[in-house]
Specification:
- InterPro entries: CMP_dCMP_dom, Cytidine_deaminase-like.
- This is Deaminase.
- By secondary structure, the protein is an alpha/beta fold.
- It has eight helices and five strands; from the N terminus they run H-E-E-H-H-E-H-E-H-H-H-E-H.
- Strands 2-1-3-4-5 form a five-stranded mixed β-sheet.
- The protein is globular, with a radius of gyration of 15 Å.
Length: about 150
């Protein structure tokens, strides 16, 4: 998760969003970070978690997702929880929860009720993983967006 947060900081500093996903397969394989690519691709499903899952499936085969763990810098939205559950992910850990993400300007909490996400076992068992620097990608994004240029981290 530490590497995911650091990748998120670098991604924001290069103009991207603070969301990063990483897949850890049941045999210990670790995917490359998946970044939120919605703005640059126009693909509304190109969320960091989904990008990471697609990359891991392409690299290792879709069966490698079964029993894997998803690490996310921000708690997954309803779409990402559903996609993860549908592709065999068994555990989800996140560095910044949905309420904190909302405080940083990314409020997707309404998607959970609209999609009945609370009924998904994977969402109910997802856990916050405390990591130093977890809010930094979000803070860097807000700083850059406010016209402050590259923040001093």
């Amino acid at each position: 998760m530490i590497r995911a947060v650091e990748a998120g900081i670098r991604h924001v500093l290069s103009g991207g969003l603070p969301f990063v996903g990483v897949v850890v397969t049941a045999d210990g394989g670790v995917s490359e970070p998946g970044f939120n690519r919605v703005p640059e691709t126009g693909d509304p499903t190109a969320h960091a978690e989904i990008v990471a899952l697609r990359q891991a499936a392409e690299e290792r085969g879709s069966s490698a997702l079964t029993g894997a763990t998803l690490l996310a810098t921000g708690e997954p939205c309803a779409l990402c929880y559903r996609f993860s559950a549908g592709h065999g992910i068994s555990r989800v850990y996140y560095a910044v929860d949905r309420d904190s993400a909302a405080e940083w300007g990314f409020d997707y909490r309404a998607s959970y009720a609209a999609d009945c996400t609370q009924d998904l076992p994977i969402a109910a068992t997802a856990q916050h993983l405390a990591v130093d620097r977890a809010p930094e990608p979000f803070a860097a994004y807000l700083h850059r967006r406010a016209g402050g240029g590259a923040p001093r981290l």
